[in-house]
Design goal:
Number of domains: 2
CATH class of the largest domain: Mainly Alpha
Structural class: mainly alpha
Largest sheet: none
CATH architecture of the largest domain: Up-down Bundle
């Protein structure tokens, strides 16, 4: 079968698995690794939160994928770059400046990953007819989620297992990143061979067209900020996940910290099971359930149940911090409840972004929304480690519950059409 007529099953699963891995590495795996290496919660939260920045500003350089080269080439080149960056992290871990050097490499990897998102999503729309795009959207999501579970669950567990066998945290994490680097080089080679070459994936545009594209780019931004009620829209995008942005940065450190420091004292392997596998599976199921609820009754009717589902289960972390259970099954169950609720509530956020983006420029406007979403995660996460280090885990989790107030206020202010998101034909 020729490349241009190859089944989408040959490349869509691997393409979106490749899209998910570097994100989970930069955002989650780095946190666990730095905690294992003895970095403080203040530094972990501050510096890894800065790694959100490429996803915040990625709409600013998205025209580059149109102006230079093909999206197919962007995909394969960036995957080679991510593979090299993963190997670079492996090389920096054994050094005396492991924290500073690995952060620099993670920073480069984050920009490459955000750029890869732009190219891969654009390529997907060019390589498939519209009916096939709809048919494979679930496949995209599934393999992206599998990458998250594999990274936050499987790789964390592997790092813990290697640490126990070798007795060296440094050696264990170096090996994990060498394996990841090899995997990404293999994925880049694979996609270089199997990705179709759609005629619509042009090699760039001419000078006049390029100027037109730049002008259109600024016009898209201007039209977004002229939307009615833009202040409320931006407030909701920035504050809906305000408590979760702080909680997520401290979840793994809390599970790993010893009991005398207020944590649960879990091993790295146990965190991979409880939070990375059970928790993320519950998150995925919550997302599916939230989508089903909205499709049945619409976003407007589902909004408040989903808002409460997002925030109320955060009390699970406070209960864990107060009781310090030792059974992994109990801890896993508590994390599953919290993550399932997060998955439910996050669907409301995603659907609201879709509502905001509605219109002739919906793809670009949705990308802008995702930039504000990342900014809403980045800024609160930066101070969360400092706050926890100063007040301890129990007061911190109390603060997280209080931090739901801005989110609830913004949810009360937004306006959603009565039947938005509701499947046609449902009563």
């Amino acid at each position: 079968m020729s490349a241009n007529h190859r089944s989408p099953w040959a490349w869509i699963p691997t393409l979106y698995f490749a899209q998910g891995i570097p994100y989970v590495v930069v955002m989650t795996l780095s946190v666990v690794m730095y905690k294992n290496l003895g970095i403080s919660n203040t530094d972990i939260a501050l510096y890894t939160s800065w790694l959100y920045l490429p996803w915040v500003i990625k709409p600013l350089w998205s025209p580059l994928a149109e102006l230079f080269g093909t999206k197919r080439r962007w995909v394969t080149v960036l995957q080679f770059f991510v593979g090299a960056a993963l190997a670079g992290v492996a090389l920096t871990i054994p050094t005396d400046k492991a924290f500073q050097l690995s952060l620099a490499v993670f920073w480069l990897m984050a920009f490459a990953s955000a750029s890869h998102d732009i190219a891969a999503d654009g390529y997907y729309m060019l390589a498939l007819p519209q009916h096939s795009q709809a048919a494979f959207v679930g496949v995209r999501s599934t393999f992206y989620r599998l990458a998250n579970i594999g990274g936050q669950g499987g790789l964390v567990y592997l790092a813990g297992e290697l640490t126990e066998r070798s007795g060296s945290v440094v050696q264990a994490w170096s090996l994990v990143f060498w394996l990841l680097g090899g995997l990404f080089v293999a994925l880049a080679v694979w996609h270089g061979l199997v990705l179709p070459r759609p005629a619509a994936d042009a090699r760039g545009v001419g000078g006049g067209a390029a100027r037109g594209l730049v002008a259109e780019f600024f016009a898209v931004f201007a039209s977004f900020f002229k939307k009615p009620g833009i202040a409320v829209i931006l407030g909701f995008l920035l504050l809906y996940r305000f408590p979760e942005a702080q909680l997520l940065k401290l979840a793994s450190p809390f599970l790993l910290d010893p009991v005398d420091k207020g944590g649960l004292g879990l091993s790295t392997k146990a965190v991979g099971i409880a939070y990375g596998t059970v928790g993320l599976t519950a998150l995925t199921l919550g997302g599916l359930a939230g989508g089903w609820v909205i499709s049945r009754i619409g976003l407007k009717r589902a909004l408040w149940p989903l808002v409460l589902a997002m925030h109320v289960p955060n009390v699970a972390f406070l209960v864990l911090a107060l009781t310090h259970p030792t059974h992994l099954a109990i801890i896993s169950a508590a994390l599953a409840v919290e993550q399932f609720g997060y998955g439910l509530g996050f669907t409301a956020y995603l659907m609201y972004m879709i509502h905001v983006a509605e219109g002739p420029q919906k793809t670009a406007h949705y990308a802008i929304c995702t930039g504000f979403m990342a900014l809403g995660m980045m800024i609160p996460g930066m101070w969360s480690g400092w706050l926890q280090d100063h007040i301890g885990y129990v007061p911190f989790f109390v603060w997280v519950l209080l931090a739901t107030v801005p989110s609830i206020v913004m949810a009360a202010l937004i306006r959603v059409p009565d039947d938005f998101g509701k499947k046609e034909g449902d009563a």
